[in-house]
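Mods, move this if it's the wrong board.
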Amino acid sequence: MSRKGGIISGGFQPLKAPDAPTVDSVSAGVLSADVTFSAPSNTGDGTIDSYVITAKQSDGTSASATASAAGTTSVSLTVGGTTTFAAQALSEYGPGQFSGFGNSTSVPTGQELYTWGRGSQGRLGHNDTVDRSSPVQVGSLTTWAQVSLGGANVGAIKTDGTFWTWGSNSYGRLAQNNTTDVSSPTQVGALTNWSQVSGGNTHMLAVKTDGTLWSWGNDFNGRLGLNQPDTDKSSPTQVGSLTTWSKVSGGGLFSVAIKADGTLWSWGRSYYGQLGQNNRIDRSSPVQVGALTDWYQVSAGDGFCGAVKTDGTLWMWGNGNVGKLGLNLSSGHRSSPVQVGALTNWSQVQTCNGFTAAVKTDGTMWVWGSAANGRTGTNNLTTYSSPVQIGALTDWAQVTTLNTGAAAIKTDGTLWAWGVSDFGQVGDSTTINRSSPVQVGALTTWYQVSGNFVNPSLAAIQQSFT
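Not the wrong board. Structure tokens:
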């Protein structure tokens, strides 16, 4: 790009190019990074045409991306390890000042899948039925993006958008068009547009990148949402024709989902009012829960449900036995969402079998419900009917529950678990029950963890930097 000039007092002088933009933050993915940057306060004498974001990789090579405006842009990388980033604005008067490399981040080259706990029916994906008391990598691939455990069924999505299942295949819940158990990951069809999967007790659901919703497996009580109750499906079947689905969660006998517009929908069994419809009527197709459009995250458990709104409030409904709704009541069901307290700093809730766990935006973790066998992680066997904090730490990032306990990832990437460990599901290389969180191994690269709905096993994805 040529640099223009102009006549000003004192003679011919070059007109000023832009100052340096500011690289505000970087979020690393697998061989990629989302870079957020701000426009320079002084844009020079011309108009900024574009921006160049440059990444200096750990091997000394560089990668770059262009953007038409300040904001967030993605940079594709070729090398893992430590990477720094810089920004520069381009205008008609030439390239602007260079921000200089900064915002160092570690870039993973891939994501590995690990499982442990009970291995019956091949649910650990190791091509056998052997229990594992510590995380063992599933195969050698580093392309896993998300994993979800149901009853004894597992579903996972790879970074290329392909979908894979394994474990128990009763009711056709593995979507392989048969009912044969599979003990290692097996691809479902050939599509590459799967986005999110959630395993229920004996059914599964998934959302594609085009916003369509799909379900399969056991349809008892209409939990597949296909308006044909008690008709099992052994391959993915679209729920309606809408293309606006965003998030889905499979429960014991029901399902819930959030659309892109923030509305909440439910279907299946409603014996305890777990559909949130202010009644106990089963539904075989999605029905909206109320009229609000600010639902952010939802978790379907065994007869009850929890959800977080965009304003940070927490809501629960369904079966309230053993205090698992967190409403300071030891029993009593709720057939529509009821707010838990008045706080507005909840970020994630996870329901399962008899208890609930949740994380706040301040990094604290809270539990309530049955503490049988130490599964609430509070170092006692006390049943709580309202949220109780686990310890005093403020670095919890994500939590998952299983019928015998829970597991969580901290902001430093470490993995922790607690509860019953009769099949090694705590993952600390023992079968000793733990009533408070213990670290699983020494890795600091854990990315996502999922607990089995009714059987004691776990799966987690950890980032690889080699």
